[in-house]
Write the structure tokens for this entry.
Amino acid sequence: MPNKIVLAYSGGLDTSVILKWLQLKYKCPVVTFTADIGQGDELNLVEKKAKDLGVEEIFIEDLKEEFVKDYVFPMFRANTLYEGCYLLGTAIARPLIAKRQIEIAKIVGADAVAHGSTGKGNDQVRFELGYYSNNPDIEIIAPWRDWEFNSRKDLIDFAEKNQIQFTKDKIGESPFSTDANILHTSSEGKILEDPWIEAPEYIYTRTNNLNETPDEPEIINISFKNGDPIYLNEKKLKAHEILNNLNIIAGKHGVGRIDIVENRFIGMKSRGIYETPGGTILLHAHRAIESITLDRGEAHLKDDLMPKYAEMIYNGLWFSSERVAIQKLIDSTQQKVSGEVRLKIFKGNVIIEGRKSENSLYDNVLVSFDEKGDYNQKDAEGFIKINSLRLKKNKK
């Protein structure tokens, strides 16, 4: 039996029920930890709710800058997409939360941690691999896999019995579940489970419908240094400020919506609606600056590694030695990825208008049809003949 537990606490119905359930089952102090990574208004009542449930040690920490600078930006250096389209907004947040939760457990002398992820999702894997990576001896409690509750009604009944406050809209069946942070908002489950049925418009909370976007485009400039954005419209900003400003711009113009069916790590398929407004702009801008600063070999190697790197993050392996090794390789390619990108944001589109860099490998003389430079076009004949040898051989 644990002597003290640190719970990853959101303040919602589920984790409030979990908090009380842990107190009753284990008869020990429960410490709550809430990471502010840009999820918004839902944090307003977290401290009060925890206090009302008898919690004496409450940690609410603003981790937005660390999240963007040390997790989101390194991921974007790789132009990371899971299964070709998912920008990993949920997956990339879990390692930071898990790491800090373990650090808090050490601070308060807790020998166990708990989370509110279900036994059907990816997050249970991500949290627990993160916990074990940072403390191999920690005890992990996953109530959704252990407790007696089988339905939403069971949670409501338990909450009412134990005088746990929750909003009235929680009494009915939740129409879908959401997760939010400064990078994205995800929605899945219930009314979204049929992949043939279009998601209702009210699902989207961060991006305008295209019918409601401005009829004039917005031109923006992003400046990069060593692969990371540092200036937006010639103004130097902190990492989370850049992403937040890009979110506002992209959301206004309807940029960043995707509707996908993904393959979960545990084996089932899941339909999700994701909004990643600022991240979508950042992905296009980063690829644009790389297009003139990276050697072809580096660029293609990165593209080859990216799906594996994305899968590692999706599967909760941020702290694995292989992810760290690939990150070192990726970061080594970013030393000259500096310069400026000009983009047009309009009606859901991110359009590259220009890119420039002191480290540019783009040679105007070399590519021009009007100038010879030091390129002898006759040399191409031998190059083609050598590359045709195996093709000719296969026809004999």
User: Anything to note?
Assistant: The chain has a mean pLDDT of 93. The first helix runs from residue 13 to 26. The radius of gyration is 25 Å.
